[in-house]
Specification:
This protein is mostly beta strands and 216 residues long. The chain contains 3 helices and 15 strands.
Length: 216
């Protein structure tokens, strides 16, 4: 178990085997305008607590530094990235659970892109966060798809038009799927704000291959 986190693993084996709904039952799409869209599938992943425990303990979490104005400061979250599929380098760290590859294949089939990158962001407590942003490479593309699966504690997830404007608020819970597509990364920004008190959360991210095999 990753030390220093107030996380109690589920008793009696939790909620069962880790899996997902291949039919994407309950998917709700919200058109954001300008060819940007947002899909939400509540409870898409089953066994979310079991997967959270495995990912939390089996991921080689890394800290990074970010520039804030004139200072370089520790990024307030931990991360890990994997490349999957035929193009993955031999030295790539093994995924903490094989279902991550299955999720990537299911998302690839649904959204007709080849998801070759899996990332995990760990928000250890309410002080961990990420500021308003669009994905670095995807925001330069006319169209892209970024899929997120939440594990652990429910945290606010917000979106707003690039340059400001009324925001959209979500609170994805364990196993919920959120997909940002079309021009969303280019025309909108998203953030996970700080909160007063909350348990740890992991956001699993699935990104597809970009032109010239650019990776993020």
């Amino acid at each position: 178990m990753f030390s220093g986190l107030a996380w109690q693993p589920p008793l009696f084996g939790g909620e069962g085997e880790v899996g997902f709904d291949p039919e994407f039952t309950g998917l709700c799409r919200r058109e954001l305008g300008g060819e940007a869209w947002l899909d939400v599938v509540p409870g898409w992943l089953s066994g979310a607590d079991e997967l959270f425990t495995t990912v939390l303990a089996g991921t080689p979490w890394q800290g990074h530094e970010v520039r804030m104005y004139d200072n370089v400061v520790p990024e307030p979250r931990l991360t890990c990235r994997w490349t999957i599929g035929d193009g993955a380098p031999e030295e790539t760290t093994a995924l903490p659970h094989p279902v991550l590859s299955e999720l990537a294949r299911a998302l690839s089939g649904r959204y007709e892109v080849n998801f070759t990158q899996v990332g995990a962001n760990l928000y250890r407590n309410g002080a961990d966060s990420v500021a308003w942003h669009g994905d670095r490479i995807a925001r330069e593309l006319a169209s892209s798809v970024v899929a997120l699966v939440s594990l652990g504690a429910a945290r606010p997830f917000r979106l707003r038009p690039k340059g400001g404007g009324p925001s959209i608020g979500l609170v994805p819970g364990p196993g919920d799927l959120v997909v940002m597509g079309g021009s969303c990364q280019r025309m909108w920004q998203h953030a996970v704000p700080k909160v007063r008190s909350v348990g740890p959360r992991v956001s699993l991210q699935f990104r597809h291959a970009y032109p010239a095999q650019i990776t993020v």
